[in-house]
Design a protein that fits this description.
Elements: E1 2-7, E2 12-17, H1 19-23, H2 25-37, E3 46-49, E4 52-56, H3 60-69, E5 80-83, E6 95-97
Parallel strand pairs: 1-6
Antiparallel strand pairs: 1-2, 2-5, 3-4
Length: about 100
């Protein structure tokens, strides 16, 4: 398992992911974005106005749930949150910016 930092506007969280996910994390990030913003997808992260999907709202737990339910579905090794509101990012840890 490897550590990845998820940097949001006002905080950074650290998660643990299987090595193969970390090795191609940009591909995983693109797949998450595609899944997240696909309007035919009725996930619970949509912000709707008058029944129209306008935007999404998500946090670290939503990204971890996506990993565990999609690329890691059926696997025993799952992602998890290591630290919320991390004060610093360890050297060499990949960062995803949301």
């Amino acid at each position: 398992m490897k550590t990845i930092a998820l940097e949001f506007m006002y905080h950074t969280d650290l998660i643990s992911v299987p090595d193969d996910i970390c090795d191609d994390i940009k591909k995983v990030e693109r797949a998450f974005d595609k899944w997240l913003y696909d309007k035919s997808n009725d996930h619970s992260l949509w912000i709707c106005e008058n029944g129209i999907k306008r935007a999404v709202s998500f946090d670290t737990s939503d990204f971890v749930n996506y990993l565990n339910d999609h690329p890691l579905s059926g696997r025993r090794d799952k992602s998890e949150i290591i630290e919320e509101n991390a004060k610093e990012i360890p050297d060499g840890v990949p960062v995803l910016y949301f």
